[in-house]
Design brief:
Number of strands: 0
Largest sheet: none
Mean pLDDT: 84
Distance between the termini: 59 Å
Oligomer: single chain
Order of helices and strands: HHHHHH
Radius of gyration: 21 Å
Structural class: mainly alpha
Strand content: under 5%
Helix content: over 70%
Shape: globular
Length: about 170
């Protein structure tokens, strides 16, 4: 049962990632990213990292993806002559496509080398399937409170900076 779930969620994440890679419609890519995040979150839960899986879904699906979709919708060009039925197209220079392809191919070959040279056998006992949420919560609120608060302030500053950058400072009709 776990193997079937693992292969199902892996297939979902990989198929969604490939769809993101090959589609040129940004909105479709954003929704495929939603499925990829869900697949990765489910894989985290299957691996016994339930807190990481829930965090993946809450932060990336609930926050980052919504911001990405709003960013896509708010940065559309006001081209009145464009056909609204045509999908959004990404215009990329040929030079950048070549460099992107070369860098992506090199990274893919590197990852293949890492995968084929790795030893994936289990070392030691199997992991206890006890939930980690309570342990992480206690650790964050006791011994790791200061780094937790610093991260919270840093995220708040990043949020304020992003809102400042998104302001329209030169409103010209």
């Amino acid at each position: 049962m776990e193997a079937a779930a693992f292969y199902g969620f892996s297939t979902l994440a990989i198929a969604s990632a490939l769809f993101i890679l090959f589609t040129k419609n940004l909105i479709y890519a954003a929704f495929a990213l939603f499925l990829a995040f869900l697949g990765v979150g489910a894989l985290y839960v299957l691996a016994g990292a339930d807190f990481l899986g829930v965090t993946q879904i809450m932060i990336y699906v609930g926050g980052i993806l919504v911001l990405l979709i709003f960013g896509i919708m708010l940065t559309q060009k006001g081209d009145k002559s464009a056909d609204p039925s045509k999908p959004n197209r990404i215009e990329v220079l040929i030079k950048r496509e070549v460099w992107g392809f070369l860098i992506g191919t090199g990274f893919f070959i590197f990852l293949l080398k890492v995968i084929f040279t790795s030893d994936f056998r289990m070392a030691g006992d199997s992991i206890n399937s006890k939930s980690t949420i309570k342990t992480i919560g206690v650790e964050l609120m006791t011994s790791h409170l200061l780094p937790f608060e610093i991260a919270a302030v840093l995220l708040l500053v990043a949020l304020i900076g992003a809102a400042y950058l998104a302001m329209n400072r030169n409103p010209t009709p």
